[in-house]
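Entry 14. Ran structure prediction on the chain below.
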Amino acid sequence: MQRWFHRQPSTGRSGANRTLTATPATDQLGTATITLTVTDAGALTATDSFVLTVIPVNASPTITDIVNQTTNEDVAKAVSFSVGDAETPAANLTVTATSSNTTLVPNGNLVSAAPAPIEH
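Output, structure tokens:
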């Protein structure tokens, strides 16, 4: 059994028709040859194999929680946060910022100090 799986594959145990459930380990990609062996009461066996390919899933990016903020009139407020993604380097992620009240905080006044600018 390859350690590629986080647990032993399981099979249903009733009658001639069975189901194999094979769950890959977390964040693992690639191929594995799965071999099934059936053994009878006389210790005779039959086997069959297949290749299982695990492909990447495009997971949603993440952003840290930002609590509500307060600032004085005419004073800029710096708000720190982090972004991440399983498939995309953080430097390649696009951050978009918009204001619900553009009279109070115009979208053009939302500026990023990150390597890539915030898009409006």
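Strands lie at 10-11, 20-21, 30-39, 45-54, 62-63, 83-84. Will compare against last week's run tomorrow.
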